[in-house]
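Notes to self, Pentapeptide repeat-containing protein:
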Amino acid sequence: MITILTAGAVIALWWPATAGLTGADLVKARLDALKIGLSIGVGGGGVVALYLAWRRQHSTEADLDNRERTLAHQQAVAATAQAHQERVADDARADAIERRITELYLKAVEQLGSDKAPVRLGGFYALERLAQDNETQRQTIANVLCAYLRMPYVPPVEQDRKDDGTEHSEVYRERAQEREVRLTAQRLLSDHLAPDRGDVYWGELDLDLTGAQLINFTLTHVRIGTGTFHKATFIGDAEFLKATFVGDAEFAGATFIGDAGFSKAAFTSGAQFGQATFTKIAEFHKATFNGTVSFMGTTFASPTLFTQAAFARSVYFDGATFTSGANFAAVVSNDEVSFNRVTFIGYAIFTEAAFTSARFAGVAFNGGVECDRATVDDRPLANPLPPHNRNDSGEAG
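result:
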């Protein structure tokens, strides 16, 4: 319709202009007017058609955008709802797991209070499985093992047997069974504190065995956090070969009834052995001490070896007693070493020892002394060290 109107308007305006023409000119002029009118009409119609097509396309795109926005909103709402549901489900699962862990933990701990040794053993193995499967529970379970070992204990002795010696008394059996339970608790600690054990390594856990009665205690090749053995009693041999103490190592007041082995042990922080008693061989061969060390007032009743030990900070042996031989050959100290008021009843060997600073005030050498190639601040260490060879401050010279 618009095309027709446009063409008619053009022809109507053009037609009167041909009134003065005649013949062929008139026909040609009016034919040209008709062509022009039709062309303009057709062109106008095309423009209108294009406009209408654009409007339809624009409307379609707008509808599509609206639908896409609506769909995106619906999807976002659904995703939010799903995420919320997943969080709720995760929380529910976590709560269920925590409840299950708590139930297993309480049941296992309850078993430890049984008067029957097999039940107590079952409690320890249940705790071991729980710790193995739940990393966050490992320190807690290590604390339980240590707490059990801290409880009072009397080992079985021959006096507990019946007079005829053919049977064990009830007291003897109970104590012998409890010994096996405690050995199991110790073994669990040892098994899970060694990094070379792979997946069964529980990490650098802290151990508090203050006052514990420990039987043939072994922590070899382990890596632990803080080790507290204050006033602990080691029945039988105690072995700490290549043990690494990342935190402080506390052995003050401890009693070692058997041999004590700390060869190649690494004490990253402080080490406290003050007032400890070593009744048999005490070996610290190639041990490394990176923090301050104290053996003040310590009693060494049997041969003692600190050969090739390395001390990075101050070490104090003040007031210690070495009843048998004491071997400090090739010891290296980068700070002060104090032997003030130390009593060496047996021999003392300092061969090739290298001290940055060493004090021997009030020291008593009742046996032989060997100081070959030993030095203090690169000066020869006197051999032997009688009182007239020491200055008033006790500095070796």
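- Helices lie at 2-14, 23-112, 117-133, 138-150, 170-191.
- DSSP finds five helices and 30 strands in the chain.
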